Amino acid sequence: MSCVSSRRHLLAGLGGMGVVAAWPVQAACTLPGWVAPLCADLETMARRLTARLKPWSGPERIVTPEQFGYAGEGLATGFIQQAIDAAAQGGGTVRLSKGDYVSGTLDLRSQVRLEVAKGARLLGSLDLKDYPERVAKRRTVQDTNMGMNQSLIFAEGAENISISGEGIIDGRGDNFHGEEGIHGTPGRPFVIRVIDCRRIHIHGITLKDSPCWMQNYLNCEDLLVEHMTVENQANFNNDGIDIDGCRNVIVRKSYISSGDDALCFKGAAQAPTENVLVEDCTFFSSCNAVKLGTDSQSPFRNVLVRRCTVGGVAEGMRHIKPLGADSGISWEVVDGGTAENIRATDIHIVRARSPLFMRLEDRGRVQPDQPKPPVGALRKIVFERITGEDNGARGSYFIGIPEKHIEDVVLKDVRIQVAASEGWLGEDEIPEMRGIYPDAHMLDEVVSKGDHHDAPAYGLWARHVSRLTVVDTVFTPVTPDKRPQFRLRTDTEACTV
Q1: Residue 5 φ then ψ, to 5°
Q2: Domains in the chain, CATH or no CATH each
Q3: Alpha helix locations (H) across 263-322?
Q4: Which end of the chain is more exposed for a tag (fewer CB within 10 A), N or C?
Q5: Would you state the pLDDT for residue 8?
Q6: Distance CA 14, CA 267 (A)
Q7: Model confidence pLDDT, tens digit, residues 102-135
Q8: What is the C-alpha to C-alpha distance for residues 179 and 173, in angstroms, rounded to an integer?
Q9: Tell me, what's the pLDDT at 449?
Q10: Facing residues of 327 across strands?
Q11: Per-residue confidence at 29, pLDDT binned at 50, 70, 90?
């Protein structure tokens, strides 16, 4: 498709809506020069990570809690911990293989693999007193703002650790009661918290029903997660996996269904997240299937997400929140920091009210005694070969702020089916939305006549975006929709190919 014919097609779609799309007038409209090198660099990164990150390795020594007197009844915490401490002397595997083990907090040590064998279950204790606080030695935004200090499995400053097996780790989170919130989740432990560790391998395990987030890896290096199954649909704030300030990461061939964000990258560790490969996974959520943010205090660089199915929880699946997802993919930078060099390719999005969402803003959350950071950056983003079906009517949208735009964004070969809207917000009805929690549902917070909250376009609405390139991209409503396919504010620079 030529640049001229594409521009005419798009402007026809905007007709009658009172918006001037700032399409650059140029003889030839091609992909920006940075795209091909970025894609090549990320492919090279993926090969290097695949060669670098290896499974847990250690002696074939097996240690069990039964060797320390566990007889299969009562609280197993002390017996399992003795086995872990013994295995740490020279390395080895702590194997749980004799049915159910009820436990409180376990401290995982260097050189130890915790294996829950087929047919066995590690069950979280139902007594909060069995989860003594483990306050991080190095303060982070997460612990100072949210008080997340309790977990079933905890590791800090460890090296060469693993959680594996064909069995189940069940946090039994539906037995812990609390409120959903973004400023603290007291009384609801995580299942796994891993802080300041190196060489972590999560393999084959099934994780079920945390009282809060399922697992949090914070300021870690060389993290390999593979063949993992997560069902976290038992309580509020039920994230599937949170990767915070980690370097050299692979998440592959895993399945997550979660009540909150399924796969979430964060910067609360105030350490960079760099060199990340996510491939061949399925992420279903009642919130965001794949997300960066909201905590974005540190840089995110070199992230490749490929060959994944993402979206919302379906009819017939366990769920604690409404069916469907808030978004399929969300990139959010609101607490300073820079997110750049990010590519999502060969992604299928289903049951998402907003298939794609990006937000740049200036919330600026940090530790209580730190100054508010300047506005961050969200740039060099590629969405390529994206398909979708059974998605909602809200529309995808990318929004920056007047003083700081999202920059350098490419949509290439996108085919997404969406529902038609029965009512939507006009461009002049939508304020800058500062201070509203930055997820795709933020449009629901806008007060409008008629109580309509869908975006002004059924495909993509963009505001405060510089250098947006749309290539061979079509959003298709299942029934006629009077909104345009694209709606772009006059300060959004864009072109089509």
Answers
A1: -65, -35
A2: 31-391 (2.160.20.10)
A3: none
A4: N
A5: 30
A6: 38
A7: 999 999 999 999 999 999 999 999 999 999 999 9
A8: 13
A9: 65
A10: 288, 354
A11: low
